[in-house]
Amino acid sequence: MKRLAACWLLPLFCIALPAQPLRVQLKGAKVAMPLEEYVAAVLAGEASTFQSDEALKAMAIAARTYAIHFRGRHAAEGYDLCATTHCQRVDPAAVTARLSAAAEETAGTLLWFEGKPAMAAYSRDCGGVSETGAAVWTGLHAPYLRSHPDPTCARAPWQWSGTAAEISAALARSKLRAPAALSHIEVSQRTASGRAMELTLAGAGERVRISATSFRFAIGRAFGFNTLRSDLWELAASGGRWTFAGTGDGHGAGLCQHGADQMGAQGKRYREILAFYYPGTQLGITAKGLEWRRMAGETITLMTTRPDRDRATLALAEGQLRRIAEQTGWNAPPRIEVRIYPDIATFRNATGEPGWVAARAAGRRIHMQPAARESAIRHELLHVFVEAQAAAKLPVWFREGLVEFLDRPAAAGAGSVVDADLQQTGDAGRAHRAYASAARRVAALVQRYGKATVLSWLKSGLPADVAPA
Predict the structure, then answer these.
(1) What is the DSSP string of 297-334?
(2) Model confidence pLDDT, tens digit, residues 321-367
(3) Is there a single domain that holds both residue 216 and residue 304?
(4) Which of 88, 176, 259, 286 would you label with 18, given CA atoms 20 to 30 Å apart?
(5) What is the pTM of this model?
(6) Residue among 48, 129, 57 nearest 96 (CA)
């Protein structure tokens, strides 16, 4: 697993981290799910019938982006996402090797727009024409969710009919107002794609306007969601019944699952599928849509969106790199990149870290908030040096404690350290205490065995008598 390091804002600490899991409410329990396991479980719940592997990869990226975009949606309830269609349907028990492969082959890849994860909406079937995002979610700024014809969508027709009494009862059950004696239904407003947007219900001299989507959900709750499957329908009245004849399944915005699967069957690659359904977005593991400027130093490359503001950081980083090389006697790792994000929100979106983390190192790339200080730069560069030297399976507490020792030695002391306390970002106090313990423990080892010997363990591994934490 790739090792990552993050640096707290207050106080300044760093930590080796795997990607943070999602907290999912699943069958009444809050479950921590690694991101790619979550994506595979969403594929099982939302796309298990896909025939095309390329469409499945496209769906994996859409599902991953959707999850990151809405992460924390249920924070007030103590978890990130639910396992129903309110967020995304999750079915871990139905995950297959094929679904896991689609998640792993696209691991970490998101759809980006203006430096932030896109609102990667999708539906089962767009009915031949996609819907704009703003028509579904009022006020949404998502130019990539636009209405356009979809020639690959199957346009499978459906039909449902109901009486005035049935419809009135369904509306009442959902606490929606309707005329006392319903006698007339008409579409009073449609979206640009032709979907019903607003209905007018009339009866006994009373006229009531109602959202077409609210109407559809009310019918679905009462009679099943295979009745009015979308808002793309025409209406006819005959023999005391209203007949709704339409196409599509769901809101129709973003990726059409039936259309995407057909595009894959026609030989389209997942990138082409995503470009068709989310035009204007960019694929990548880190934030896309930002105008990155490259500034090259002697050893370090700085990537920034504000070169005038961040120019001094490059000189500070180069100076710290030389000092660390002199302090340790190690050669500086080549091709180090420092990436400074324009704001805290973009840093969080690109790294998945909470806002109180100042910086994070992943391999030889350092991700930083714009407010991070020189001390944070030094700390992350120490992580780059240590990780470049570290033996496989070296305990996290030793690596973290060694970085602390090289940065600012703590007083020697005893105490146990649990790697899990260092690897979580949900509780800053818990991490703070674990860092302090790791720093004291490594300081005690240096006091007992000497600095040179302890540094040598970085490459050789810990002796058996000091390995346990």
Answers:
(1) -SSEEEEES-HHHHHHHHHHHHHHHHHHHHHH-PPPPS
(2) 999 999 999 999 998 999 998 888 778 767 777 777 788 888 888 99
(3) no
(4) 88
(5) 0.64
(6) 48
